[in-house]
Design a protein that fits this description.
Strand order of the largest sheet: 1-2-3
Distance between the termini: 26 Å
Largest sheet: 3 strands, antiparallel
Radius of gyration: 15 Å
Number of strands: 3
Number of helices: 2
Length: about 100
């Protein structure tokens, strides 16, 4: 589990709803957190799965971690994995890949 900047962010980024399996379908879920990319977003409740990326915590004001999206895609490319076509290795399906040795 990722460490978040404050207790309130932890509560909202880790929220589970007993009525909705999909956090984007739950009107009470405000924050999305993608552990793979270390990205936080404000969920746009319009029936889709959109979120507006945020750089600062709305509760404590701390700067949130820098997105690792580009690095994730770079690492998969180095492994010869096309995320649109190939199966994503298990370690790259969550934040575990961040602890792997860099291939730079």
């Amino acid at each position: 589990m990722s460490d978040h900047c404050c207790e309130t962010m932890t509560r909202y980024a880790s929220a589970d709803c007993d009525q909705h399996d999909d956090p984007f379908a739950c009107p009470d879920t405000l924050i999305s957190f993608d552990a793979r990319f270390q990205e936080y977003g404000l969920i746009i409740h319009d029936g889709g799965t959109s979120a507006s990326t945020i750089d600062f915590c709305p509760w404590c004001g701390r700067r949130l971690p820098e997105s690792q999206r580009d690095r994730w895609f770079d690492e998969l490319e180095r492994l010869g994995v096309d995320p649109g076509e190939d199966e994503i290795p298990a370690a790259y399906q969550n934040d575990r890949w961040l602890a792997l040795p860099s291939r730079d």
